[in-house]
Design a protein that fits this description.
It is a single chain. With 490 residues, the protein is mainly alpha-helical. It has a domain of 218 residues. The protein is built from 17 helices and two strands. A two-stranded antiparallel ribbon has the order 1-2.
Amino acid sequence: MQILAIISIIFPIIAGIILFTLKLRNFRLRNALYLTVILITSALILTTVLYSIFVEPVDVTLVTFSSFLGISFRIDTASAIFASIIAVLWPITTLYAFSYMEHEHARNRFYSFFTMSFGVVCGIAFAKDLFTLYLFYELMTLTTLPLVMHENDEKAKSAGKKYLIFSMIGASLIFIVLVFFINFGTTLNFAYGGIMDPVKILGFNNMIQVMAVLGFFGFGVKAAIFPFHSWLPSASVAPTPVTALLHAVAVVKAGAFGVMRVLYFCFGTDKLFDTPAQYIMIIFASITIIYGSATAFRCPHFKRRLAYSTISNLSYILLGFAILSPMGLTGGILHMIFHAVIKISLFFCAGAVLVKGKKEYVYELEGLNRKMPLTCTVFTIGSLGLMGIPPLACFISKFVIGSASAATGTWPGYFGGLALAVSAVLTVVYLSTCIIRFYFPMKGADLSSLERIEPMDKSMGFAMVFVTVAGIVLAFLSGPITHILERVFS
């Protein structure tokens, strides 16, 4: 059963390459083959995770280069959570993509890289050590870049260039951290509490803090931390199935996952708590929270508004991790789970409005509920969840992160709590504005364009309903999930 971890990663990568070379013209056959690969991969991932939890831990090495370097995979609580998120949401997004991409060009290329990215992100989730994580983190840039540039116009090329440049900056910072641990670590294998050699690091406290900040920003680039955030709104030119995964599941959550790995499983919290390094991380996460929410409030473009909202919410997660406490870690992981499901539902709605309603801007949403009631209902429920309205899921994660911020007893922690409060208000405003326009069009608004709205495809509607129901279910399971995480990371 150990080999399933490797198969889960390699199978979709190889299948994506093979299907790309086949260049299938029968779209029904092509869709069926890609969906089969995605479903098999999800089944392999979930089977591996369950086996690791209930039978024996999965720990397997693919290749060894030296005593320090190799490609190895292991499933712990953190990797099980991240892998489960992608295993559930990737097939649903694939179904959504079949409808969304129906009239797009180069669909075979799109689905091939879409499938390969699944395996690469699984490699990030299952990575046993920092080198393996770094390797698959870089591969993720290569497999997702063609998806960002799919339209192949000037906007897409510009977005792809920016994405690549920012990713290279982040990778360079992570490489420096990798070299640091090769020299100052007992191993590169992740271990909760840290892997630094206590003898080698004596007298290097300042260097440790610098390396921790570099690791935070290195992985934080993908998580759109300020000032490395601008690639993410630019990437919204990609097809919505891509932005849904990029902004909710794959790339951005991989960045947040990397921050968690490097802070808690490489450096450990003892050497970083209540230091200038921690203050820098908390301050930049807090600034990003406010900046993302404020910019979303001002942005008139519907999809980009959600992109800036993502920037803000990603730093909720980073703030939780930067608090460097079990409560902060729990809050960060909770928000990583809940935000993934809720935000992907909002992007599904934005995509439906774009391709079926032919509307891009918030001021064009007047009276949309009359023709797209399902889309408006899903968006409303998702928005209430993202606002943190009790008892919906994000209320719990925001509460835990806010409590952890206050528990630090430091001014940066209080500043983080203030950022959460300001962002909460702005989130209510910028999402409510859309909802009000759905149901209560302004007097005298021209609603003639509603007649040109196309009917919703079943696969698109099913995907939207599924993630909405999943978000509601998570709300009722938030208590048990919180207790489990508290026990694991206490």
